[in-house]
Design a protein that fits this description.
The structure holds two protein chains of two kinds. In chain A, helix 3 (about 40-65) packs parallel to helix 5 (about 100-125). By secondary structure, chain A is mostly helical. Chain A has one domain (about 5-130, about 140-300): Orthogonal Bundle (ABC transporter involved in vitamin B12 uptake, BtuC), CATH 1.10.3470. The N and C termini of chain A lie far apart (about 70 Å). Chain A has 13 helices and no strands. Helices cover about 70% and strands about 0% of the residues of chain B. Chain B is globular. In chain B, helix 5 (about 85-105) packs antiparallel against helix 7, helix 5 (about 85-105) packs parallel to helix 8 and helix 5 crosses helix 13 (about 305-315). By secondary structure, chain B is mainly alpha-helical. The chains are: A mainly alpha, B mainly alpha.
Chain lengths: ~325, ~400
């Protein structure tokens, strides 16, 4: 068994695919954290997005009420709305009620975990699969050797995720809205004095975070795995939060972290497939160990938003 | 009169949370085509409707209470420890190893099967081993926070996943029950000899004694005694004072000469230790072996998360955690009855627990506003009520 058996084109391709939910969720979390809100409920929002998106597609496909592409878009829309509503609720709790963000996020996580399982058992019962987003065949490009397999044979949501990276970076760095987000996260008093509504900006970013978390969940349940089961995300939302710290609150580096992480994950899966002599438990463990090590080396290098986790209290 | 009113308002977030949770779960039940009154009735019956039901509630409450005490220490010290699950597993792994090894070494064959003959040394060493391993696992997150500024929420969540895999690895390898090896390979250890088991608990009421025919064990008494001890520790000793000072205000504590980094590690060490105890007590008192289905909550039954809910519900007071743990133990047991009778999935409770967490921390804003007023009053009368909020 040589390195050639491990570093195949399919490993790189699956690394790109596996990065999709992390990129969606982590970009959303980047917006929230840059404005000063730590949303730890991402995993619960992902689970709800994954279930509701899956269920919408499932119902539409079983009843054949709409064409397959329409059913998938319908599923995505439902996941976006559910994620957005949960983001809005998180904003209400964190911004208006000024609840401790670390703890309330765990509450939102448990809520999403429990409710998605409850609804799944009640409405679906046993794991069923749907026909999810198909892989896109590009003329010429898909047929290219190696490059075609790695880059040009993915489903639509994969490309949407990667397209969101430059878009998010542009919004944060080059638009007025981005400037307001950064100001509110760095110095809410000054932003407030300049007439920026701290509350409104934080509501917006936390809701964006929820929308993208819902999409991240849907990218699992109707594009990557094409089914739902109890605790489908298995903590991916928490890793997405860790990736934001690791990536220093910048979309490009956050996405790079997501790629690195999912590359390790893809390697881990490949090592299992070729039956290398490493206990599978250690392979599964590896990404989490790497995340902790990454956090040790990452947090010192970058400045975290000064107002992160601090509710804004207008001075008297 | 005013004091009693104040105390009532201290528990306001809990009461508000409970009320809101009741309303929301009723709505959910109605949405699932179940009659809420019927559902709550089944839950109540399932939780305390019979001697055995009550015992099962207390059995479920025991690990939640251990974890809840630990979480109380961590949160009071300003450390958001989400690692109860992993620390429970770490403690259980160490504790079961000690119990198995000492059980083999110390107990003569004829005593090994004598019912009720437990060996204090084996049990004590196993409990200490579990505490220590959980404490080290929790302390690791404290260390990473203190010296590398690694967010403890994230590190403890990662450590949870790592612990699950470590448990699966060990239970499929060196800790695997020799009787299982080569046959089913169900991941579980050998059964502990009776000398290494925590005795069952019964109360001298009636004949046979109350709970004599149930699974209730001495872990509950240990947990309740420790709750009182930790209450005294936190509010009546200088160690506890330093932990709380760091939790209240790190900068001020630092100016006052408190070693903040050390306190961070210490509170995480203790918190991990209590979760470790939760894990080892599950093994010694209930299952008599460490077993899992391989899933994250396969061994812990999510007590590591429910302990967080109980700690918050108990007002971050170890004594308050006692009724809180009993309440959540009852919810879990009652929900199983509800599931059997009405077909409503018991995962409803996970969702409701999440809501309770959100509601408790959200309603703290009203307490905060009030305590600001109270501070200004206290400045005039120079009256301190530190630590008087008993359960």
């Amino acid at each position: 068994m040589g390195l050639d058996d491990i570093l195949t084109a399919s490993v790189f391709a699956s690394a790109i695919r596996l990065a999709t939910p992390y990129i969606f969720a982590a970009l959303g979390e980047t917006f929230a954290q840059r404005s000063g809100v730590l949303n730890l409920g991402v995993d619960g929002m992902m689970l709800m997005g994954a279930f509701t998106g899956f269920y919408a597609v499932h119902v539409a496909q079983v009843n054949a009420t709409m064409s397959e592409p329409m059913s998938l878009l319908f599923g995505v829309a439902v996941a976006l709305i559910v994620g957005g509503l949960m983001g809005l609720a998180m904003a209400f709790v964190s911004v208006t009620l000024k609840a401790k963000q670390g703890i309330s996020g765990i509450g939102v996580y448990l809520f999403g975990l429990g409710l998605s399982e409850l609804l799944f058992q009640q409405w679906v019962g046993t794991p069923k699969s749907v026909s999810g987003f198909p892989r896109i065949n590009f003329p010429v490009l898909t047929d290219l050797p190696i490059v075609g397999e790695i880059f040009f044979h993915h489903n639509l949501l994969v490309y949407v995720a990667f397209a969101l990276v430059p878009i998010s970076a542009y919004i944060l760095n080059n638009t007025t809205f981005g400037l307001m987000i950064r100001a509110v996260g760095q110095n809410p008093e000054a932003a407030d004095a300049m007439g920026v509504s701290v509350t409104r900006v934080r509501y917006a970013t936390t809701t964006i975070g929820g929308v993208l978390a819902g999409l991240a969940g849907a990218s699992l349940s109707i594009a990557l795995i094409n089914l739902f089961q109890q605790n489908l995300t298995a903590g991916q939302g928490f890793i997405a939060v860790a990736l934001v710290y690791f990536g220093g609150w910048r979309p490009w580096t956050v996405a790079a972290g997501a790629m690195l992480f999912s590359f390790v994950n893809a390697l881990q899966l490949q090592i299992k497939v070729i039956g290398a002599d490493i206990p599978s438990e250690f392979a599964v463990m590896a990404p989490y160990v790497i995340t902790i090590i990454a956090l040790v080396f990452a947090t010192k290098r970058h400045e975290q938003p000064t107002a992160l986790t601090k509710p804004y209290e207008r001075g008297e | 009169m005013a004091g009693r009113l104040n105390r009532l308002i201290d528990f306001a977030p809990v009461l508000i949370a409970l009320l809101l949770a009741l309303v929301v779960s009723s709505v959910l039940l109605i949405a699932l085509n179940a009659n809420p009154f019927e559902a709550f009735d089944f839950m109540l019956k399932g939780a305390v409707g019979s001697e055995n039901a009550t015992a099962e509630t207390l059995v479920k409450a025991t690990p939640i209470l251990f974890v809840g005490i630990g979480i109380t220490i961590a949160f009071r010290g300003g450390m958001i420890n989400i690692g109860g699950e992993g620390q429970m597993i770490a403690g259980a792994l160490a504790g079961v190893t000690v119990a198995l090894v000492l059980g083999e070494a110390r107990v003569p064959a004829e005593m090994a099967k004598t019912p009720g003959a437990f060996d204090l040394i084996i049990v004590t060493c196993s409990l200490l081993g579990g505490f220590l391993m959980g404490a080290l696992y929790g302390g690791l997150a404290g260390f990473l926070k203190a010296y590398f500024d690694v967010n403890e929420i994230l590190s403890t969540i990662m450590l949870n996943q790592i612990a699950v895999q470590m448990m699966n690895f060990l239970l499929n390898g060196i800790l695997l029950d020799p009787a299982e090896a080569g046959f089913n390979n169900i991941p579980k250890t050998a059964r502990l000899v009776t000398a290494a088991q925590l005795p069952r608990l019964s109360l001298p009421i009636g004949d046979p004694w109350l709970f004599a025919r149930t699974r209730l064990h001495w872990g509950l008494i240990i947990a309740m005694a420790l709750a009182v001890i930790i209450y005294i520790f936190l509010w009546r000793t200088s160690w506890g004072y330093r932990i709380r000072a760091v939790g209240e205000n790190q900068r001020a504590s630092s100016y006052a000469g408190i070693n903040v980094k050390r306190q961070m590690m210490f509170s995480m060490f203790l918190a991990g230790g209590f979760s470790g105890l939760a894990g080892v007590v599950q093994v010694l008192g209930l299952q008599y072996r460490l077993q899992t289905d391989g899933s994250p909550a396969g061994f812990t039954g999510a007590a590591g998360f429910n302990g967080i809910v109980a700690a918050l519900f108990g007002g971050l007071n170890p004594i308050g955690a006692i009724p809180a743990a009993a309440f959540f133990g009852g919810l879990l047991v009652g929900a199983q009855k509800m599931q059997r009778e009405l077909g409503v999935p018991a995962s409803l409770i996970t969702a409701v627990n999440g809501l309770i967490v959100v509601f408790v921390v959200s309603s703290e804003i009203f307490i905060l506003q009030r305590s600001k007023r109270r501070v200004s009053v206290a400045e005039q009368t120079d009256e301190s009520d530190d630590g008087e909020e008993d359960g």
